[in-house]
């Protein structure tokens, strides 16, 4: 019974991992598109005010179990990864 | 047009952020339940082999734009946060 339950819970965890991967990937595509729009307007890609607003919105919706600091930390990593991706793209463009 | 598009894309990003928060929260609940089952069986909560398998499963499904290393890094942070949560719970129990 317990071993079965463990297997079931692990299956649920695997499904959530894949959903997270899909969402993070989709998020990166949107960030890339925002970057293109910003390039047209001529504004900088990294906007610390907007990042701060997104983090505060997330924290305001956080009902635990994670602390607000943990939520900030995890999302900052996700935000940074998407921005770093664009840096690489820009560098590639410069090299062509 | 461009400003409107930016607003639209930002709205999409906000929605994805909330979905990510919900999934990470749901994930933490499942990890907590796995911890309880493991406590019954008497096995350790942190299983490096299982963590490695989950990471490799994610990397095998990763079709970019993130590098495999970035996916490993982001998910290790998510995994660690869930485990840290349980440590705090255990410490609380010891203090009662």
TrEMBL record, chains A, B:
<feature type="domain" description="Chorismate mutase">
    <location>
        <begin position="1"/>
        <end position="90"/>
    </location>
</feature>
<protein>
    <submittedName>
        <fullName>Chorismate mutase</fullName>
    </submittedName>
</protein>
